[in-house]
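Same chain as my last thread, 337 residues:
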Amino acid sequence: MIIESWRLILRPWEDGDAAELYEYAKDPDIGGSAGWLPHKSVEESLEIIRTVLSEPETYAIVPKETGRPIGSIGIFPTRAKGAGEGELEIGYWIGKPYWGRGFAPEAVTVLLKRCFDALECKRVWCGYFDGNDKSRRCQEKCGFVYDHTEKDVHWEITNEIKTEHYSSITADSRLDRVETERLVISPATPEELIGLIKEYEISDPELSEAYREMLCGCENHPGDYLWYVPWKFCLKDTGEMTGDACFKGKTKNLPPEIGYGIIEKFRNCGFATEGVRALCEWAFKDGNVSAVAAETAPDNEASKNVLRKIGFVPSGETGKEGPRFILRKNAYRQVEK
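reply #2:
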């Protein structure tokens, strides 16, 4: 199986990857943090590919720009104490030259979606050894929450006594899915977004260009792609898409701005209000977001009504499209009550 993200391809390991694997796996800092011994030769790396890395749901992490593997990631039954039956775990490592570029969380995010959607797992785990703060931060960025610590673990591969910390995330708390009474709201995949660009190239070039800008935002900010990608509003009962919405990026000290549109045959059914309200609630779960902004054309009364129903108020400013509105978290909570 081959899985794509904004910058990555996850694919099975191949014999021809042995040289790249050895290049990264010979580094003691890689194996030490992941719990295995450094590789001693290309031949050993090849043997690892044919045995350990040939297990189901094990993937080479391959940047699209190079086409060569830089790390590994996989799904397996969790070892975490207290885990329920059928719960899974994700393990991963990235070659040192590629640390700090967001490849690990991007790959983990892709496999999380597979765990929840394709494998129907209700809870997914990740572990990291004591002192591996890079892995801890990766897991936090992907929505994992610390669960427990297991001390004095005998790690047979390296014959060491280790302390392992476990975090987990449930299907209900995943970051990339929101449900309302009638809608399932989820981000478009890279393939779907490219499809939207092509679909509207002739019939609506302006919309096609807007989708193209969203694609660029996702590719340039893969770690924060949820703030750049269009979120699809799909009917729960049929899966049919009724419209979508998108935050126009996330900037420090400025409220994220949301834009939205509903397919013509689904207008005047309340889907815009339902979907936008749910995404604003999603945004406010981020501790750094205290307000959400929006703007609309001066004569678009339907859009203004959507914003008013949710609790947006005029900000007194005018943007490129028209008057701007603001929804503040504290005021929104008061409206809810």
